[in-house]
Fold these 2 entries.
Entry 1:
Amino acid sequence: MPQSIPMTQTLLAAAELWRPNASANVFDLQSGFYGGCEALRSVPSQVTPALDEGPLGQVAATGRPLIVNELSEMGFLVGEAAATEGLGAAALLPSYHQGVVDSILVMYLRSGPEAVAAVELWAGTKGRFELSLDQSYYVGLERFSRISQYVNFPQGSGLPGQCWQTGMPLIVPDLATAKGFLRSSGAESDGLAVGLGLPIMQRTELRSVFLMLSSAATPIARVHEIWVEDPEQPGGLTRSQGTYGGLIDFTAASQALKFSIGQPDGLPAQAWTSGQPVLIDGVEAMGEAGMKRLDAAREAGLSFALAWPVVVVDRVRAVVLMMG
Amino acid sequence: MPETLQPTASNQAARDAKYVEIVNLVKAYPNPLGDAIKVVDGYNLTIKKGDLISVIGHSGCGKSTVLMMLAGLNPITSGDVLVEGEIIEGPGPDRAVVFQAPCLLPWMTSFQNVMLGVKRCYPHGTKQQRKEIVEYYLNLVGLADSMHKYPREMSGGMQQRVGIARAIALRPKLLLLDEPFGRLDSLTRMDLQDTILGILDKERITTMLITHDVDEAVYMADRVCMMTNGPRAKVGQVLDVPFERPRNRKEILGSDLFYDLRGSLVDFLAKNEKEKPGEKPKQVAAREDVFEAPGMPHEVFGADPDKAPPLQLFASIPGASA
C-alpha cells in the first residue's frame, strides 16, 4: 500500500554493500543502511544470497548494473519487506577491482503518492555510437518517463553523454535551468531538481551511465558531493561540486574542507585510498569512521553516508559522496 | 565444405544498421585573425538503411553545412562519411540532393529535367527503358499530366515535385533534402510531405531531411537529430519517433505522444536559443546550498572538447561495435 514519505526521509530508504565470497559461493554483507526499514534490516540475518542466483548473482556474473522494479525478484523476504516498507525498486551497482566485480551496492528506493524521482541506466545502442535508456525506475514522472525511452545521447551531450565523454561523475544542481540537461520537457513541470550522473566503468569499458534525478521535496539523497584530486595540493582531495538540499549550515561546514589520500581522513579519502565504496549507517558510525562534519551532520538529521569511488583504468578519478 | 561468402542475415542486419556513418565530422574555415573557425565539430551520426532522419536546429547552426559535406559539395575538413561502408569523396550519383529552390533548367520540360540525371545513371539502358524510368518517377510525384510542361508553366509546388522526381530517379543510396518545403504554402507542403513519404515507403531510400519545422521533423522522420548551436555545432540529442509506417497524419496529430515528442524538440531548441546581439546572458541566481569549483575536471571537457581524454578510452560501449 502506498505510504506517505516524511519530509526528513530521503527516497533512498536503505542500502546494502555486498561482497562476493567465492570460497563459500555466497555474498557477504559488508555494510548496510536501513533508516527506519526494520523489516529489511532483518532479511540478511535470515537468508544468505548465493553467488550465482538472483539479481546480485546476475550483476556479479555480467558485471553490469541492474534496476529491479519487482522487488520479489530479490527474494521472497525482500519482497515482503518491500511491501511493508513501501519500497518501489532497487538499483544494483557493481564496483570493480582490476576489472572484476569486487562489491555490489544495492540501493532501495521508496515509492509513494507524493514521491518524484528517477533512476536510469543509459547504455550503448547496438550499431550506433549513442547511449539510450536501458533500464529505469520512475516515480511520479509520467511525461518524463514517456519521453525518455525515445531519447538517445551522443558522446558529450546531455548528462549521460557528458559522463561518457569525461569518464567523470557530474552533478546538475538545477535540472530546470541547466543547459547541459536536455530533457527538460516534463522534468521542470514534474518538479525534478537535482541530477547526478555516474559513469560505471569496467577498466576502459563504459558499462552504463547511472543517473539519479531527484525532486526538492523527495530527494534520493540530500547531500551530493564530488571529490577530486586537488590540483594545488598533490595527495589532497578537494570538492569539485556539491549540492546540499537547503542544508545551509552543512554547506557552510563544508566550505574549507579538504582530505588527504592515504590518511584515515574521512569518507572520501577512505573510498579513494581503498578504491572500494564505503557505506555508513547512522551519525554515530559516521563519527567512528572519522567524519569531519559530524556536528553539522547531526544537526541536519543526516543518517547515512555513501562514498562511491569512480575508477577508470584501475585508478580512482573521483569519489561521489551522498548523504541523507 | 568451403565457407560461404554470402552475408548472413545477422551480418546484413548489422550492415544495414550502419548504412550511413558520419564519424567525427569537422568543417573549419580559415580565419585570418587566428585559429580556423570550426563551424561543425565532432558531428557523429549513424543512419539505418531505409530510415528517414530529420535534422533540426537553429538557423545558422550548420545543418546545411553537414548536408553539403554529405553531398560532397563542400569539402570535409576532417572526419569521414561512409555510405554502405565506402568513404565518400566528392559528389556522386549515389547521393542526390533536393534544395529549397527546385533549380530546374528553364529551357527544359519536366521530362527533360528528370531525363538529365537518368541518362547519366543508366548509360547502358535503352532509350525506351530510360523513358519509362522518367515517366515512372514523374507519375510517382503526381505529374503524369505535366511531363511536357516547362518550369514557367508550373507552380512552385509542381516544380519542387519535378526536383524530387529528378533526385529519386537516380535511385540514390542517400537522399538529401535541404528544406525542400521551405517555399511552399502549408497545404502544398503537407501534400508534398505525404507524397515523399509515400515514395520512400515504396522505394526504401535512406534519407536525411533538413528542416526548421518541428511538426515536419517529427511527422516525417524515424529519428530526429537535434543540433547544438554553432560554431562547433554537433549532434545534441537524437529522438526516436515510434510511429508506424505508412504514416497517418490524422492519427499522429491525434496522439498525445506526438505532442510529447514535439514538446521535447521545442524545449531543446529553446534551451539552445542564441543570445540576441546586445542581450546579456541570462543569469541564474547563485544558491547558497550549491558549490561549483571553477576549472575542475567536470568543467574542462564541457568548455573545450579538445581537452577530453582520447575517444578510444571510453569508446568501447558494449554492443556499439556489433
Note: The first helix of chain B runs from residue 9 to 17.
Entry 2:
Amino acid sequence: MLELRDLARRYGDVVALDGISFTVGAGQMFGFVGPNGAGKTTAMRIILGVLAPDRGEVTFGGRPVTFQTRTRFGYMPEERGLYPKMRVRDQLTYLARLHGLQAVAAKESAGRWIGRLGLSERAGDRVEQLSLGNQQRVQLAAALVHEPELLVLDEPFSGLDPVGVDVLSDVLSDYAAGGVPVLFSSHQLELVERLCQAVAIIKDGRIVASGPVDELRDRGAAGRRVRVAVEGAADYEWVSGVPGAAVVDRGPQGALVALANGGPPDELLDAARRAGSVTYFAFERPSLTDLFREAVTA
Amino acid sequence: MSGLAATRLVARREITERVREKSFLLSTAINIVIIVAVVIVISLIGGGEERYAVGYVDAADAPVLEAAVAGGAAVDVELEARQVAAGDVRAQIEDGSLDAAIVDDRIVAEEDPPDELVTLLQGASAQARAAQALKEAGVSGAQAREILDPAPLEVATTEPTDEDEDSKAGVAFFTILILYGQLLTYGYWVSAGVVEEKSSRVVEVVLSTIKPAHLLAGKVIGLGLLGLANLLLTAAVGLGTAQATGALDVDGAVVGAAALAVVWFIVGYAFYAGAFACAGALVPRQEELQSSMTPLTLTILIAFFLAFAVNSNPDGTLAHVTAFIPMTAPVTMPPRIVTGDAPTWEIVASFAVTIGAAVAMIPLAARIYRGGVLRTGSALKLREAWRAARA
C-alpha cells in the first residue's frame, strides 16, 4: 500500500503541490487525473525520490520510503525515459541490473518481458528506430523488468493506438492483480474510469476529489441527474416548466436533466408525460469526465 | 546495490555503448591515420642527414673530394664522390644523379648549390691546394698533416645539448595537439551524454534507483577510461611509426615522457570532466549545449595557445606561471616534460595543485549536476542549479 501524506513542493515562487494526500491500495489500479500543470508529475517524482518534498511524507507498506525501498519501484516517466541509441535488449538488461538484479537474472527477465510485450523481433534494434507504439512498449518493459512492488506511470497511454492501449491495459491489470499498487496519470478519462478502482483528481496542487470511482460517481454532481427521452417533444422546452430542473446535455438518447436540491424526479416525469410519449427515463450517474469537469471548473 | 557496483555498471554501459558507435570508431581511426601520416611526413622532410652526390672529371681532384667527404661526415652531411667523364657531367647534373661536380677548378651545379655543400667543397679545395703548396715547398708529409689537420676546436655549450632536440620539440608539439583534442572530445562526450539522459528523461528512471553521484562518477570514469585507451593507442601507434620510419629515436626517455603526458590527460580530464557534466546538466536539449559549454571550450582553447607560447620558451615566466593554474597545467606541462625543460620539483608541485583542484571540483560538480539534471524546461543558471540541489 502506497500512502502520500500532505506532500508539498514549490519551485521558487511556483507552488507545485500544496499538501496532497491519497492512498493506493495493494492490487489497486489508481488513476491520477488533473489538468496539465496541476502537479501530477511532481507528485510522481517525489514518490520515486527523484525530487524531495518540502513537506509531507510518502510511505510504502506503512514504512517511510527509503532509497532501498525505491529500487523495488517501477517508474515510467512521460515522454520516452529510454536511451534512444541503446538496443532494446541491452537497455532492459541494463535497467534491470541498475535495480539490483544479477547479470543472469537481468537477462532472463529482459527476455521474458520482450516476449510478453511482443517485441521479440525488435530486441536487437535501437530504441530510436522503433515506432512510437513499440517505444512505449519498451518503456513499459523497462518499468516492469525488475518485477517492481509498486508501479508509477506518467501518461502511459498517450499517443497509443487502440491496440496498444489494449495491450498496455491488459499488462497493467494483470500486474496489479498480483497485488501490486499501480498508480498512473492520464487524460483519457473513459479509460481511467474503465481500468481504475480508485482515482484522485488534482487541480493547482490540491486534491479536489479522491476515492473509489463508484463512490465518487454516486456522490458526484451535486444533485441527481436523469436521462429522459420523449417522443414528439425533441426541443425539451417543457423542462423549464419544472422547478429546479435544467437540461445539461442533449444526445441521441435524450436529454440529461439535472435536478437541483436532489429533489424527487416525480414532477419531471409528470411534465414529460404531458409533453409526449416517454421512451426512456432513468437516473444517470455522472461519468468521471463529468466529475472532472465539475471539479476543475469549480 | 552498493554505490561502487552502481558506478561500475554505469561506467561499463558508457564504454560498451560508445565503442559500438560508428562515430567513435571513425574518429579513432581518423586520429590514427593522422598521427601515422604526420610522423611519416616528418621522417621524409626533416630528420635524416643531408646527402649530396658530387662528381669530378680530373683524377687530380680526387684528394679534394676525399677531404670534402671527411669534412662532411663531421657535420652530418654525407657526400658521395665519383669520377665521371667530362661529356657526361652536364647530363648527370640535369637528370639529378649529381648535385654538383668539380670541373676545371669550378663548381658546376644546376642552380645555386646549397651553402653547406659549397662550403665543404671550397674548404676541401683550399686544403688540397695548401697541401700541394707545402709539398712543393719541401715540407714533409707528417709536418704537412700537422699543419693542415690541427686538432679541431672543441664545442662547449652553456646549457646541456640534446641531439634529439628538434625531434623532441616535434613530439611536444603533438603532445599539445593531442591533449587538447582529447580533453575537448571526451569533455564534450560527458556533456552530450548528460544531456542525452536529461532530454530523454531516462535520467529520472536511473536516478530512481541509483544516486546522482554514482551516475556522474560512472559516466566520467567510463568515458575517461575510453579516452585513456584511445590515447594509449594513439601514443603507441605514433611512437611505433616514429621508430620504424626513423623520425625519432624512441628511447626510454621518450616513452617515459609519453607516459607522463598520458598521466596528465587523466589529471586534466579529472579536472574538466565534472565541469563538462555540469554544462550538460544545465540545459534541456542538445541544441543548447554549445552555449553552456562555451566557457569550458574557451578555457581549453586558451590553455592550448598558452601551451604553444610555453613550448617556444619552456623556461619563461609564462611556463612557470601556467604550471600552477589547474586549467592550463594539463596542456602546458606535458610539452615541457617531453623537452626536459621542467624540473622535477615543478612537475610534482604542478601535479599536486592540479590534482588538488580536481578533487575540490568533485563535490561542487556533483552538487550542480544533481541540482540541474532533473530540471526540465528551460536552461538553468549555475546559481539556480546550486540552489535546486538542496534536496
Note: The mean pLDDT of chain A is 88.
